[in-house]
Amino acid sequence: MTSNAISTDFPFESRFVDVHGSKMHYVDVGEGAPVLFLHGNPTSSYLWRNIIPHMSDHARCIAPDLIGMGKSDKPDIPYRFDDHYRYITGFIEALDLTNITLVIHDWGSALGFHYAMQHEDNVKGVAFMEAIVRPMSWSDFPGPFSLIFRMFRTPGVGEIINGRLNFFVTQLVPNSIVRPLTDVERIRYGEPYPDYASRKPVWQWPREIPFDGTPADNHATIDGYWQKLQQSQVPKLLLYATPGGLISESAAQEFQQKLPNLTMEHIGPGRHYVQEDNPDGIGRAIQTWYSTL
Questions:
Q1: DSSP 276
Q2: pTM to 2 decimals?
Q3: 3-state SS, residue 90
Q4: Is the C-alpha dihedral spanning 283, 284, 285, 289 positive or negative?
Q5: Catalytic residue numbers, as ranges
Q6: Which of 48, 99, 150, 244 has a CA between 20 and 30 Å from the CA of residue 287?
Q7: Helix, strand, coil proportions of the chain in percent (round to 5)?
Q8: CA–CA separation, 239 vs 261, rounded Å?
Q9: Where are the alpha helices (DSSP H) in the chain?
Q10: Does the pLDDT at position 4 exceed 80?
Q11: Tens-digit pLDDT profile for residues 131-145
């Protein structure tokens, strides 16, 4: 697929709902059982713009911006994993969502997996890509990425790199996509983070990854849902790309062996933000899988 086939438009009406005293932004199109699209760092609902149309004739498609991200409010909170989880569960409750199908990526995957394994009776299925499926080790991150993320996690240094220099948004995102982003797309991804204060979630998220058990609370959460996922019969769809980032082909094969009721599909070339390389392939695969639920 060429970049000409991927739209830069975001043709959805903005909606807002109050959650814990702050406004969370979301889009809501289609009718039927809800499909909840959860993004990660440092993206927003804009990530799903070319995938939602594949599903909006078949379900109610809802894509929020995590608190502090996208067009959602930016309250003065630590922006740890538990903060985001409290807001996303509050969002689900505020919209009274039931029988949810989760479509998840990056930190949205950790939030979604944790929710699914805590609320299996409210989850119809889980589709995931470039996801945090289990606890991670520094050995999972090859040379240059290990160095970059160690710097991100260093107090003071991370704030300079991602707070002052906005490195994650301006450099890491484009370099984690196979095709070149257009100027419009770069602007859209940068809009939520115009200054140092607005970038707090961006520099905090890398510190939330439980590399080799640290931080311990997030390690316990992720290991907890990983153990449950290996027993859960909730239908699962794994979409993986080549070479991938968080999920390589070998990791995908391992997950196929360990996760019950899993459908797996290769979506072609992609690094981490696979929605920007093959949204049509992702959308078609989700639609086909969803029709079997």
A1: G
A2: 0.97
A3: helix
A4: positive
A5: 106, 130, 272
A6: 244
A7: 45, 20, 35
A8: 14
A9: 52-55, 81-94, 106-118, 143-152, 157-158, 167, 173-175, 183-190, 200-208, 216-229, 249-258, 279-290
A10: no
A11: 999 999 998 887 788
